[in-house]
Amino acid sequence: MASLRDIKSRITSTKKTSQITKAMQMVSAAKMNRAEMNAKAFVPYMEKIQEVTASIALGSNDASHPMLTSRPVKKTGYIVITSDRGLAGAYNSNILRHVFQTVKNRHQSDDEYAIIAIGRVGRDFFKKRGMNVILDIVGVADQPSFADINDITSKTVGMFADETFDELYLYYSHYVSAIQQDVTEKKLLPLSDISTSAKLTSYEFEPSAEDILEVLLPQYAESLIYGALLDSKASEHAARMTAMKSATDNANELISSLSLSYNRARQAAITQEITEIVGGAAALE
């Protein structure tokens, strides 16, 4: 049995850990609320730009653009959004496991694909396994602005335009609720299946539909990446909040168990001391 000092030391260290995880849970909860608001606030913009893009792409017979046209696939690009830090439960591992299995099942050679990693965890995961990471960005803010990722989104869309990639997929964690985040795969480019659930509004295009598509489609693709990042940040904070809550609960259970063991050991020590005193007194008589 451990000594009283050892048990007391474990109780003290566990209490300190519990205080840290409780603080991290509260911080993540505050960040999650703000990230959820940001993600929801971006939805109306995405719906409107999707409606306008679909109206031009589907409603105009003379409108065409390379980003709307499928071509023979020689190389596939994968945008993977993870976090820069751990302590978020299975948030990162679920995404990385899914992407890793997908890449291994689809491709026989590293020349057939390339990875754009947003987040330090994803970047380190793929580089450690010798996978083809051609672009990466780390240090994205907890409440990101479009300017934070404008460089990598424009480069990524440009790579599809110059045929470095023939198709582009996006992987991220979709925020459903504070306790549910789903790994999501979305085909980003080409935009061959672009559609809208709303009734298409009639627009007049000036100077022409093709000129508008030339500007609008890259912005739309970049907005899809930014929207996924906002969604992913909300999922990250929710996953970290849940993980820290579980850690705090486990620490409290361990403290209770150690306190019980400490009291039993202390009672046993006191009983032994009393027995020794009584035995000594009886020997003197």
Descriptors for this entry?
Pyruvate Kinase, Chain: A, domain 1; 285 residues; alpha/beta; 5 strands; single chain
The CATH topology annotation reads as Pyruvate Kinase, Chain: A, domain 1
Q: H/E element string?
A: HEHEHEHEEH
Tell me the strand percentage band.
5-15%
Give the overall form. Answer: elongated
Number of strands: 5
Label the CATH architecture.
3-Layer(aba) Sandwich
| Structural class based on helices, strands and sheet pairing | alpha/beta
**Overall structural domain count:** 1
Lateral strand order in the biggest sheet: 3-2-1-4-5
Euclidean distance between termini CA atoms: 34 Å
- Arithmetic mean of pLDDT: 87
User: Quick one: CATH superfamily?
Assistant: ATP synthase, F1 complex, gamma subunit
**Unreliable segments of 5+ consecutive residues:** none
Helix content: 55-70%
Q: What is the overall number of helices?
A: 5
User: The biggest beta sheet, please?
Assistant: 5 strands, mixed
| Rg estimate, integer Å | 28 Å
